[in-house]
Design a protein that fits this description.
about 325 residues, alpha+beta, Inorganic Pyrophosphatase, three-stranded antiparallel sheet, 5 helices, about 25% helix, globular, EC 3.6.1.1, Pyrophosphatase_sf, acetylation
Length: about 325
Amino acid sequence: MSYTVEQRGAPNSLDYRLFFKNAEGKYISPFHDIPMYADESQNIFHMVVEVPRWTNAKMEIATKDLLNPIKQDVKKGKLRFVANVFPHKGYIWNYGAIPQTWEDPGHKDGDTGCCGDNDPIDVCEIGSKVCSRGEVITVKVLGILAMIDEGETDWKVIAINVEDPEANDLNNISDVQRLKPGYLEATVDWFRKYKVPDGKPENKFAFNDEFKDKDFALEVIKSTHNFWKNLISQKTDAGGLSCKNTCISAGDSPCCCTQDEAKATVEVSDLLFICFCNKSTPEISTLGLIPPGILFHNLMFHSIFRHVLVERKSVCPQQ
């Protein structure tokens, strides 16, 4: 299965979004609609690349937004960028997440003693290729690091793209230690210090800062997949997360998102970009800027526009 992305809004702006489509051209959620496994028999997983190696913009799957596009994280109304903490430049791996996983904030992990961070499980892909934002790749899991971030469990899976020239030689975390000396130590150093320039304390780690092996990592991933299953089947309270999907839930499920609703969501992003580029007319009256081909009398579209507009204005009230 192949996937493509559609950009809405300008990079380095509050309205930047990457929406996902499957091979059939249907809008999908990268959180819910992309299968966790690419090949379950071989323990090969899909990974959604949020941040390419060497870049600094803190991009993430928007777990609370309809269709869960990739967007840039915002803190106190400002776009987030990770600092270059010497000797590192930006993210030192291709960074992203495994779809159909969720670190449950209501579950206290027996090993870390902390609850989950309410996100899909993170992946550091250590291959030689610099991936593209929004790229969906297939990876082989090698190990895992248990980071404790402000009292929350935040697992970091170490993996390699199955198409990487080194993939055949890397099968467990011990292979990384042997063939890529210093890389795992640099990874711990990066995660320990990357928030320090923002005035935050250093992050901590379970297991005396040590990585756990492939088998341990696979069990952690499977547990987060089970948490996701409970989330998408409404056995667990979603809180503010958007569980809407276009491929997984039955048509009568409140989690089912129709293609009309999906298309309207993407069109809203186009309109918001138009409206917020014209700061002199930030109110709903800017609907006069809408291209004539858009049928704005559709009540569902109208509702989505108002909801997202209020959300964006609350983040950037000066507009």
